[in-house]
């Protein structure tokens, strides 16, 4: 694997060997650590479980990624692309559920298939926490897109409580 093939290209939304994240309007505004997750093939093309019986390719359900976490392809024991493709085929038969069988579960299934890091115990909670810890914003505007609505709501609520 050449270094050239794992370069992030934010403009083209190419994130090879990455888990990617984007805010969900309204939900992320209230709970800024909750968002939509996908996983990219070695080519950087993103796959995400976007709706019941639908795994999108190269078109994330809630817009371009605002955060990414690039993983090490050498830690994928079961084959990176084949594991993502297998997880995607399985999730094309699933009903999407906000709380338990969702985009995070799709990514966890892919990581479990590839036994990433020698583990097959990936789950949505672990991924959410690790993305919050390891994720990098693609740009300052992406950071603002994620956090501005939350802080605006907090300021409005505080002002209402103070002045009314």
TrEMBL record:
Membrane-spanning intervals of the chain: 15-34, 146-163
Span of the secretion signal?
none
Keywords of this protein's UniProt record, alphabetized?
Answer: Membrane, Transmembrane, Transmembrane helix
For this entry, the protein name equals Transmembrane protein 222 isoform X2
Organism from which the protein derives: Sitophilus oryzae
Q: Which domain of life is it from?
A: Eukaryota
Database matches in Pfam families: RTE1
């Amino acid at each position: 694997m050449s270094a050239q093939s794992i370069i992030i290209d934010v403009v083209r939304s190419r994130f090879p060997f990455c888990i990617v994240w984007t805010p969900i309007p309204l939900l992320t505004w209230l709970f800024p650590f909750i968002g939509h997750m996908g996983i990219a093939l070695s080519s950087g093309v993103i796959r995400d479980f976007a709706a019941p019986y639908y795994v999108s390719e190269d078109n994330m359900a809630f817009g371009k990624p605002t955060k990414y976490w690039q993983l090490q392809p050498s830690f994928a024991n079961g084959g990176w692309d084949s594991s993502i493709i297998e997880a995607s085929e399985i999730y094309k038969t699933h009903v999407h559920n906000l709380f338990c069988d969702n985009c995070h579960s799709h990514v966890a299934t892919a990581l479990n298939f590839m036994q990433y890091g020698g583990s097959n115990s990936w789950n949505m909670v672990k991924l959410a926490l690790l993305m919050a810890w390891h994720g990098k914003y693609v740009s300052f505007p992406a950071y603002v897109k994620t956090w501005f609505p939350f802080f605006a709501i907090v300021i409005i609520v505080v002002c209402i409580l103070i002045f009314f």
